[in-house]
Amino acid sequence: MSSAIFNQLITLLDGGQARYRVIEHARAGRSEEAVKARGTQIEQGAKALVCHVKGNGIKQHVLAVLPAHRKANLLMLAQKLGGTRASLASPQEVMMLTQCVFGAIPPFSFHPDLKLVVDPLLFQQLDEMVFNAGSLEKSLLLNVEDYQRIVKPEQVEFSELA
């Protein structure tokens, strides 16, 4: 399944004339492992979390993207989206909504029921962002402006210092 996501990403990025490169590396899912395997900086990393936001009549799956060196404040995320609470999705839900395992989720949503939000700090780090591209052994180093232009994500502040 993850190769299908990788191919979707490449097709989308090529269609948008994005500046990127593929990095093949040792298996890595956690941000700290990925930094070593890729030879990149932690601040370049884009971490994607599948969450449930609930309360106030809201029941929404969210793909929340943040800089890899920060942590998600799920309560803040829920409140900014109009809910009262948020939690991480189960491995089964993650697979259903992203076709990826934990740690391999790219900062793109290809599922209609998965709302994409990005913490604006991601765009203020460096010129390039890096993320696992549907695989624990394959990452993409992507120009941040190209990501923002192609994806046009909703920006929501929800990260805090780790």
TrEMBL record:
One of its GO terms (molecular function) is aminoacyl-tRNA deacylase activity. It holds the Pfam family tRNA_edit. Residues 29-149 form the YbaK/aminoacyl-tRNA synthetase-associated domain. InterPro entries: YbaK/aa-tRNA-synt-asso_dom_sf (IPR036754), YbaK/aa-tRNA-synth-assoc-dom (IPR007214). It comes from the Bacteria. SUPFAM superfamilies: YbaK/ProRS associated domain. Signal peptide: none annotated. PANTHER family: CYTOPLASMIC PROTEIN (PTHR30411), MULTIFUNCTIONAL SER_THR-TRNA DEACYLASE PROXP-Y (PTHR30411:SF9). This is YbaK/prolyl-tRNA synthetase associated domain-containing protein. It comes from Limnobaculum eriocheiris.
